[in-house]
Amino acid sequence: MAAVVSDVTIGIACSGLAPGKPQIGRINFNCVAITPANLAAQQSALASLAAALNPLTMGIVINDSISVGLTLSSGLPGSAAVRGHKWVVTAQESTGDFNKYLYTIPAALEAAHVVSGTRVADMTLADWVAFSTAFSAIAKSPAGNALTVLGAELVGRRG
Q: FRET partner for 2 with CA separation of 20 to 30 A, picked from 17, 58, 115, 145?
């Protein structure tokens, strides 16, 4: 099901605790659900709003963003879905500088997803192969290079 709205954030640099170290305040709100047909119009509207904020704040409008997403489920997890119990996934650029990046998957499901006797993900299992394939198909490094999943490890609290 497509999202009804998309999340928008405008960042405003505010006075910090030390010179040259601003604190960032954010205005978070929703806009109409972003589609290919309305993206340019929504970006233009956001730019107009950001410009209109300047006279209303002593801070400096430094960035804006529109998050486009889907509502995948309206259900609630059980109490065992502890945010701090997570998979830390390591991915590496397939080209360029071959930098490595870490990503987290909260509320890790450990059962049958690790190499026996360890906290290391068994990347040969179907669930991990499916994740790795899907992640590599869409994820890019900050430089825009394709990423390949190298592995994952279970970390954090134990529900």
A: 145
